[in-house]
Structure formats: structure tokens, C-alpha cells
Amino acid sequence: MVVEKKPLLEIKNLKTWFYTPDGIVKAVNGVSYTLNEGEALGLVGESGCGKSVTAMSIMRLIPTPPGRIVEGEVWFDGKDLLKLNDEGIRRVRGNEIAMIFQDPMTSLNPVLTIGRQIGEAVELHKGMSRDQARKRTVELLELVGIPSARSRIDDYPHQFSGGMRQRVMISMALSCDPKLLIADEPTTALDVTIQAQILELIKRLRTELGMAVILITHDLGVVAGVADKINVMYAGYIVESAPVEELFAKPRMPYTLGLLRSIPRIDEPSREKLIPIEGLPPDLVDAPKGCPFVPRCTYKVDRCVDENPSLEPVEPGHTIACWVDVTGGKS
Predict the structure, then answer these.
(1) H or E segment at 320?
(2) Residue 34 is inside which H or E element, if any?
(3) Which value, in Å, is the radius of gyration of the alpha carbons in the chain?
(4) Whole-prediction pTM value?
(5) Helix (H, G, I), strand (E, B), or coil: what is residue 86?
């Protein structure tokens, strides 16, 4: 018997804008999606497409000013996070939802030992004594594969390598047994071997602990072995959403197709070179009236210039925001 998973996170029409001297930067433009308990979602797109801003909006970490969540709802475990007061969101942040950032050195305090930094979280959220927190910290460091954890608990961040610092950040994120882990480009500054180790670690911990994961990256190859489904973002919109196997086998939106063509594949040895997506992402202060991908799209039709399509289903569980279906003609 298949047990149906309950929705853990529901985002409805989320809009986050930044009010700058040059105009309003519409960074996130009506994003909606659902993440079930224990599910892994990949949020993919080029730099500046709104991936990180979406995550920061969920956590209520948008700097105000200049940023503001102007519309939408973020339902997590039955409560709208956008309506919680400061104390309420602090209880959720780090406790029920944890986040890993791409550069651990900007998140770790250089003058505190890693034991103290992890211990503070469990003392605050779990009410543990300092001795209990220290014991829990050793367990967490062992869980993420840091050798000689008991002797390294009093070391400082600069005494760890980049990969080990990222493991420390993961252990800190897991310290309060969160229901949702948001990993924002967690492997960007790491070499390929360490990248694979960190992704395998996130995958293993997700299975062992049963938590949901949102993995944010610009690289579709990174999410291939980790995510259950993928949301592709462009210019603040979700432009395609599908289960991971289907998205790789049959992309339906030109931008997704372009992303897939621009990554190396071992199953296509005859392909001599990567095919880049020509042009640049649009200016989010002065975005085009129609589909934002129009200036770079080789599949465009007249309707694309005047009307921005909404996200519509093309198959069960597979939606695209496009007037042209690149695998099935006009949608």
C-alpha cells in the first residue's frame, strides 16, 4: 500500500520586489509550488533568476529596505509564515526550517569554536544544558562524517578545509531535527570530488532523517541524483516543473532544453561541444511585456512577444509556462 505524503510547504503566488533608486526589481513574480513531507525539490536556473530570493522569502530573511514581500502566502506545517510575528518566525527558523548557504565562511563566526556555534542552537531551541549540547554536537559532527569529532569540537572555522566547513554547516542545520532543509548552492566553492561527497551526504541524511529538502543550484547535473522533482526558474517565474526523470528525458520548455544542452553528458559522446544559451537574462527593472525568455528563444512565435504564459499542465505532474511545447508543437 502506498502511503500518500502530506504537503509540508505550500507557496502561493509569492512576489518579492526590491525598491532601488533605479526602479523596482521584480525578483520573484508570483511563484507557487508545493513540497511534500520527505520530498526533495531542485530549484534550478541561472544566477539572478530568483532562486535564492525565493528561499530567503520562505525564511523571512529579505533585507527590508530595500526588499519587500509584496504578495503571497507561505504555508508551512499548517501556518502562514508571512503572518507570524518576529518571535514566531524565530521559533521556526533554525528549528523547523534550516538553511545551508553557499559560503560557510560567511555563516560561521571566526572567533567562536564550532562546538560553541552548534551548541548555541540546541541550547536555544531544545532547552539543553551546555554539557548536553556539547554531547549532541559531537554526535552531529560524527553524523556528517567529520573525523575525530570529539577532539575537533574546540577548533575554529579556519582550522577546517572548505569541504569540512560545509559539513559543519550541515551539522548545524541538522542540530534541531528540522522538517525542511534548504541548501542554497551548497557545493559552489568546492572541488568536484568534495561536491559529490556533500551531495551524497545530503541525500543520505534526507533518507535517514526523513526531512524534506530544497536544493538550489544553477547546475542541473547537481540535482539529477538528489531531487525527486525540479522547478526551473527564469526571471522570477517558474517556467517548468516536472519529476526529475521526466524533465531530463523530455524537457518541454525552450529554456530548460537550453540548460540541458549546456551541460556535459557522458551518454552523448558524439556531441563535440556544449551549446550555450545565447544572450543575457532580462533586466528585472524593465522586463519584457510578454514571455521574459523571448529575446533568447529560437522557438518563439508572435504570441510570445505580447503575452506572458501562465504555468499550465502538459502531462500529469508536468507543467510549463510556454506558448510552444518544444517536444509536442504548440501547447
Answers:
(1) strand 318-320
(2) strand 23-36
(3) 21
(4) 0.89
(5) helix
